[in-house]
Amino acid sequence: MFNFDFYNPTRVLFGQGRIKDIDRRIPADARVMVLYGGGSIKTNGTLSEVLTALGTRHVIEFGGIEPNPSYETLIQAVSLAKQHNINFLLAVGGGSVIDGSKFVAAASCYQGEATEILQSRGSKIKQALPLGVVLTLSATGSEMNSAAVITQKAIKTKSAFFSERVFPAFAVLDPTKTYTLSKHQIANGVVDAFVHITEQYLTYSVNGLVQDRFAEGLLQTLLEIGETALAEPENYDLRSNLMWVATMALNGLIGAGVPQDWSTHGIGHELTALYDIDHARTLAIVLPAMLMERKEQKHAKLLQYAQRVWNIHEGDDTERVIQAVEKTRLFFERLGVPTRLSAYGVTDIQPILSQLANHQLTALGEHRDINLAVSERVLLNCL
Q1: Is there a single domain that holds both residue 188 and residue 144?
Q2: What positions does the domain Alcohol dehydrogenase iron-type/glycerol dehydrogenase GldA occupy (predicted)?
């Protein structure tokens, strides 16, 4: 196992009715900006609950954060936060709202040009406004980590940044807040969490036995509950487990001390930037093709995945690996998530390869050996 630091300061407030508890987690004299997306939190009553919990604090709202949060929108929130001397942010939504709020938290305190936060992948962040979260969509794990991904529409780029200063101070995880989500959104959340886990698990062994067993348990849970969670929207136990799996998938725990891949995300981000395909759906497109392309380099872990997660024990080693990858693809399809580029009207991979080259994404994967030629083969197998 590699040396590692594990640090996660986010306090999780889990369970039904926990929104009221934010009153104890935000200073009484705080000037709060509440950030959210398209406005569903107004119609389903969540915003009203949040405002009631905030009581007499000075509160302003900023809505309209997109599913792929854009720099162009978020910089408006930064300007508003500065104008009103905001000193606490509260993100109410899913991963996009949380990611966007992390950028606002950092950019509101940044002395230079805010794009430098993205260009430096967060290394230039010296301070940020404190941030709390009320989670309404189980998917990205952003509620309990220090990462964010922001889109710059003008240049069709998705950029990730990382900083300990944007860890949420707290996260309210109330599974009932996911009851009104569409099957499309829930399916995306299952896929997103699943691929987050595989990016940290399906690499090569460093004898991280604890991390492997955690990852395998999370994957098995998603396989057990994923389809039923779509069919039974108000099943509290199912939605509780889905919410907690998605959070655990990317809070740093299963990735501590082990190699990580993230090539599926690297290519997937370009698909979203170019064609506005949902982030999770880009992952469902790329992952099976990537695993098939890398089945020799990932052979030992894929065989372990086949045996422990999919319970495949028949056939030779190669046959079991191929079965596991195909079962992964079929799981995504059963969730209603297409796994081919053609399903989204994409038939030419050259623009994607150009984007990868322009953004210097030419050494991806846990071994940094996924160059443009490898990416091209992967994308051809995604058509």
Answers
A1: no
A2: 9-175
